[in-house]
Amino acid sequence: MTRSVFITGGNRGIGFEIAKAMAEGGDRVAITYRSGEPPAGFLAVRCDITDPEQVELAYKQIEAEHGPVEVLVANAGITRDALLLRMSEEDFADVINTNLTAAYRVAKRASRGMLRARSGRLIFISSAVAMLGEAGQSNYAAAKAGLIGFSRSLAREFGSRGITSNVVSPGLTATDMTAVLSKERTEALLAQIPLGTAARPEDIAAAVRFLASDEASYITGAVLPVDGGVGMGH
Predict the structure, then answer these.
(1) Does 231 reside within a domain?
(2) By the 8 A CB rule, do 38 and 105 touch?
(3) What is the pLDDT of residue 35?
(4) What positions does the domain Ketoreductase occupy (predicted)?
């Protein structure tokens, strides 16, 4: 069955791999991007997800071309790393607004059609950092932890209407965002991972595709770690 799938931040990294995986499964995939040239093969909507008006316009375009969103993947995220005493109000607020508040915004809008249809999949991309914490990432960890509480609350709100809400929690993943880490920092992070390697974006995409599938219809309120074992016990 072909579905209308919406992935925020689907133009690169993990989001792009999720978009490819969903499209390969036959879904109609829409992605957001903020700048540059978006990848071909998807309905690419220029949208700053921190702007409610742009989000509304994006949904109207997606609904006109693909129909109501049946699978939402809230993936878009940014980092503004700094130790707490050096972290500005702006850097804290920007990360919360992009990584958490925008997820609320796109989920709220998607839920309209899902409630009418009495079915839907909400999937939020969190991080192992949400449960473990990380020095210099208090803003990022707070936002990613917030997604877990948010998703589980929606699982309780929407469960009786056939809508599932789940979280995928990646660990260190080989993307542009992590490529800027120093060799020493990367080695230190890898040393904490039982499997000893970083995830591939495709690994995260496979977990998302599973949670969006019929096979996962009885899974809701879950946090699925794709982290090589770094977060076990959390």
Answers:
(1) no
(2) no
(3) 82
(4) 3-173
Residues with catalytic roles: 140
Query: 109-166, pLDDT tens digit by residue?
Result: 999 999 999 999 999 999 999 999 999 999 999 999 999 999 999 999 999 999 999 9
Answer yes or no: are the C-beta atoms of 224 and 169 closer than 8 Å: yes
Strand, helix or coil at 121? Answer: strand
Count CA within 13 A, CB hemisphere, residue 231: 20
User: Which two structure tokens, joined as six digits, stand for 13?
Assistant: 């990294």
Tell how far CA 24 is from the center of its chain.
Answer: 19
| Beta carbons of 184 and 222 less than 8 angstroms apart | no
- Enter the pTM of the model: 0.95
Domain that holds residue 171: 4-226
Residue with tokens 């375009």: 61
Two tokens, residue 194: 């039982």
For the record, the structure tokens of 177 come out as: 């965002």
Q: CATH number for the domain including 68?
A: 3.40.50.720
Q: How many domains, the chain? A: 1
Q: What's the pLDDT score for residue 184?
A: 82
